[in-house]
Amino acid sequence: MNTVSYSRPVTLHSIRQLLPSASFVGCGDIYFRDLTPHSDHCQHGDLFVAVPGSTCHGNDYANQAVLNGATGILTDTPCPDLDASQCVVSDVRRSYAWLCQYLRGKPAEALKTIGVTGTNGKTTITWLLRSILNASQKPAGLLGTIQYDDSRNTPVTSNMTTPDAKVLAEWLQRMAIAGASHAVMEVSSHALDQKRIAGISLNTSIITNITQDHLDYHPDFDNYRSTKAMIADYTQPEGQLIINGDDPNIRRALERYRGVHKPITVGFDDQSDHWIQLESMDQSGSQFQLNLPGHVVSI
Predict the structure, then answer these.
(1) CA 271 to CA 5: how far, in whole Å?
(2) Which tens digit of pLDDT belongs to each residue from 213-250?
(3) CA atoms within 13 A on the CB side of 37
(4) Contacts of 61 (CB under 8 A, 6+ apart)
(5) In this structure, are residues 161 and 186 in contact, taking their beta carbons and an 8 Å threshold?
(6) Pairing state of beta strands 72-75 and 46-49?
């Protein structure tokens, strides 16, 4: 059973100080304790986040949020008929995710963060990384398809590959409190598109592969592929961007990327920065050589 407990924030925060470029309707500032995109979760002193969706807008639920105690609304479109304080920003999702990280003390800054995206292999790679880090006496938390783990307490079954921005911030805070040195997380295309990891600067980003998937959500494959490449934008300037050097779709996706990172390639192609030479593979396992710059490792 998880023994770490969390109480509702009691400090009042000024949204004008936190989002100085925002504009306001019906007020000069909004002071709030916590925030939520769910109108039925609002309590007295909360900021209701009116997230735009594909079929409806959070503004449709703003009145209910106010009736439940919301002190104000964070939105990208003012509600002229709403008798409530409103903070208007250009990107609600990004602002929401950043505020979530801020309210939890920016826990990602106390951790080495590793984000893994790709169509296949995210879970396998994150579990391998957690195992390697733990074996190296570097406690690692994990967020992914199967479980959320703060590195010390009993993991819990997850309900989303990459949690909502608020839940994500809470789990990173748990990891920091638990003494984790690293946070390893699966980053889905939905999470990248919805900017759930805004406010986090990844130390290392990994793209495993990109094949057709989630076309019920993304309008086409090009959009899906481009969304996967967005993880590069969340990588620290001095961080690492590691990609599957054998996947042309990743290279195609990164053609539009104009960041500071030169991707580190890993693959079977001997032109990769780190290339794999398979020696044997059967039911008992595999043996291969990992060719690194300057030396070779047998595994």
Answers:
(1) 50
(2) 777 788 899 999 999 999 999 999 999 999 999 999 99
(3) 21
(4) 39, 48, 50
(5) yes
(6) parallel
* Alpha-carbon gap, residue 47 to 72, rounded angstroms: 5
| H-assigned helices in 30-115 | 62-67, 92-103
Protein fold of 107-265: UDP-N-acetylmuramoyl-L-alanine:D-glutamate ligase (3.40.1190)
Tell me how far apart the alpha carbons of residues 267 and 233 are, in angstroms, rounded to a whole number.
23
DSSP state of 150: -
Domain ranges of the chain: 13-90, 107-265, 268-299
Measured CA to CA in angstroms, residue 166 lies from 37, 103, 108, 141 at distances of 9, 9, 13, 17
13-90: CATH superfamily? MurE/MurF, N-terminal domain (3.40.1390.10)
Helix, strand, or coil (residue 28): coil
* CB crowding 224-251: b at 16 or more within 10 Å, else e: bbbbbbbbbebbeeebbbbbbbbbebbb
Report DSSP state, residue 263: P
Asked whether the predicted pLDDT for residue 5 surpasses 50, the reply is no
Rounded to the nearest angstrom, the gap between the alpha carbon of residue 91 and the centroid of all alpha carbons in its chain is 16
Average pLDDT, the chain: 93
265 forms beta bridges with: 243
Contact 194, 93 (CB under 8 A): yes
